[in-house]
Write a structure and sequence with these properties.
It is built from 25 helices and 14 strands. α3 packs across α13, α10 crosses α11 and α20 packs antiparallel against α21. The radius of gyration is 30 Å and the shape is elongated. α3 links the parallel β1 and β2. Helices cover 47% and strands 10% of the residues. The strands form five sheets. Strands 3-2-1-9-10 form a five-stranded parallel β-sheet. The chain folds into four domains: 223 residues, HUPs (Rossmann fold), CATH 3.40.50.620; 78 residues, no CATH class; 56 residues; 107 residues, Arc Repressor Mutant, subunit A (Orthogonal Bundle), CATH 1.10.10. It is of the alpha/beta class and 557 residues long. 38% of the residues are buried.
Length: 557
């Protein structure tokens, strides 16, 4: 029984009302399990697939994380009474169709084109015998780093050990039925040469895409022309033959009894094919969940070959795994832009949800993303500062080390330290790195016009009169009072505004951000002043009005 299945009374009572998408998927899965022969006597199998032609990437994380979220929701709904398994399956028997750009010696791999990845030599050296073995090890290390609970499976091992033999023999018997499904999906030229079986040449070791000359259901063999022109007959069992990827999907589901698998939208049109082949081979197709693909900042599909995406290492350089998990949790069926600008928002949204969790009722907790991110047991790790605020603190203080930020943090929040607030300490480090790489290069200070100079000086004078230890709210009130006294910043349409006391337009705060911080937007400025300090903020205003910020910016550029 997992932590997600061990719920307190309030959460247990709210399970029926939980609307988060993992619960919706888990309920569909429960209906499937109830119909299955054996029902709860057999562990429910969740599966994710991995193509080891390259290293694990951010999509791999997303697929395993999302599948795990459904798994934990299922365990909660069933009270942990039904065992579950997560199988991470590596298609390492696929032929190497392209030599990756990141290998040390690409020319050394050219003789191994179209050979199974587990027979291609390991170009990276070390203890792993093959390229596939190396990448499989990287996948396991990748998954272990994030603490996923899973079992690893190798296609090579499963084919060679006989795990698929029974269903492969069934595929020979039902060859025509499989062809009836596949041929209508192919063009005329491809139809003429297509076979669901891919023999591995006894001569060259390559995975062959060749038509079958004979399929013997009784003997369990296929006959084909090898690369040297000779006819060769091979048994489909024992790892000498594999299936094309679409039939392989359905075969694996049937052979293993997969209950749930999610995949990207690029598989959606093929899902009915996978299902039909699974049924032909005697299996019951699993529940599917199709997620949308990621886009770059220009709205184009992310491509590994183009390099227009965001890698997992890049995300984790600037933010926590939990913030990435939140990004994966949110609206998985909507296309989302995945680039560096989304990171700060994801970090702060995670912090807000984590802080809200203890105060929520049972239903709200179950629908809160942090319940799913942390497998039902979110940590008590509330932080007093936002990531956006820390970024602006870095900007104002020119900090290149998180220890500089801690000087301000300790003054603003007495009693905190890196030891008492490790999450905040990590955030400070992330903020320094993110600012240096993405914010600082884009900063553009501008000079204040005459009216802005008068307003900023008035703000400095008002801050000088603020009582020592003024709260963020008190400082924000000063900002409003100064802004509403300037006609250009008055907003009579604001909620609660009166002719005697108008609201304050965003233009006032935009001016502050652009002139003092070199950015077009920022956090609640009263909170920034409380953190940075009133004297320091007044000094920043004076420096800006003297033109020194613009001069320093020009010099650094």
């Amino acid at each position: 029984m997992t932590d997600a299945a061990t719920l307190d009374t309030a959460l247990s009572a709210a399970l029926g009302d939980a609307k988060a998408w993992p619960f919706e998927e888990a309920r569909r899965l429960i209906k499937r399990v109830e119909k299955k022969k054996g029902g709860a006597d057999k562990a429910v199998l969740f599966e994710t697939g991995y193509g080891p032609s390259g290293l694990p990437h951010i999509g791999t994380f997303g697929e395993v994380a999302r599948t795990t979220m459904v798994r934990r929701a299922f365990e909660a709904l069933t009270g942990g009474k039904i065992k579950t398994r997560l199988l991470c399956f590596s298609d390492d028997m696929d032929g190497m169709r392209k030599i990756p750009d990141n290998v040390p010696d690409r020319a050394a791999l050219e003789p191994y084109m179209q050979m199974p990845l587990t027979t291609v030599p390991n170009p990276f050296g070390g203890d792993y015998k093959s390229f596939g073995d190396h990448n499989n090890a990287m996948l396991r290390r990748f998954l272990d780093t994030f603490g996923f609970e899973y079992e690893f499976a190798s296609a090579t091992e499963y084919y060679k050990s006989g795990r698929f033999d029974e269903v492969l023999l069934r595929a020979v018997e039902r060859y025509d039925a499989i062809m009836d499904v596949m041929l209508p999906t192919l063009g005329a030229e491809r139809q003429a040469t297509y076979s669901p079986f891919l023999p591995i040449s006894p001569t060259s070791g390559r995975v062959l895409y060749v038509p079958m000359k004979a399929v013997d259901a009784k003997a369990g063999t296929i006959t084909f022309a090898d690369e040297d022109g000779r006819d060769v007959t091979l048994p489909v069992t024992g790892g000498g033959v594999k299936l094309q990827w679409k039939p392989d999907f359905g075969m694996r589901w049937a052979a293993l009894g997969v209950d749930f698998e999610m995949f990207g939208k690029d598989h959606q049109t093929n899902a009915p094919i996978y299902d039909k082949i699974c049924e032909i081979l005697g299996g019951a197709p699993p529940e599917h969940y199709v997620y949308e693909l990621f886009l770059d900042e220009n709205g184009e599909k992310i491509s590994k070959s183009k390099g227009n995406g965001l890698t997992i290492d890049e995300w984790l350089t600037y933010a926590s795994p939990e913030s990435l998990a939140l990004f994966m949790f949110q609206k998985p069926r909507s296309a989302k832009k995945l680039y560096f600008d989304v990171i700060p928002r994801a970090v702060d949204e995670y912090l807000q949800l984590l802080a809200a969790y203890p105060r929520q009722d049972g239903k709200a907790k179950l629908d809160n993303a942090v319940w799913h991110i942390h497998g039902g047991v979110p940590p008590a790790a509330e932080t007093p500062l936002t990531f956006a605020l820390l970024l602006n603190l870095v900007a104002a203080s020119n900090a290149d080390d998180k220890s500089v930020l801690w000087g301000f943090i300790r003054r603003h929040v007495p009693g905190v330290s890196p030891e008492t607030h490790p999450l905040l300490d990590k955030l400070a480090g992330y903020a320094v790195r993110y600012y240096a790489d993405f914010v600082k290069p884009q900063k553009r200070y501008r000079a204040a016009d005459e009216e802005e100079r008068v307003a900023l000086q008035a703000l400095s004078d008002a801050l000088a009169k603020a009582p020592e230890g003024a709260s963020a709210e008190d400082l924000q009130a000063i900002l409003y009072d100064v802004g509403r006294a300037v006609p250009r910043y008055q907003d009579f349409a604001a909620k609660g505004a009166t002719p005697e006391k108008p609201g304050v337009s965003n233009a006032w705060f935009n001016s502050i951000y652009e002139i003092l911080l070199g950015e077009s937007k920022g956090p609640r400025f009263g909170s920034f002043i409380a953190l940075y300090g009133v004297p320091e903020t007044r000094a920043l205003i004076a420096t800006a009005l003297d033109g020194k910020l613009i001069a320093a910016d020009a010099k650094s550029s």
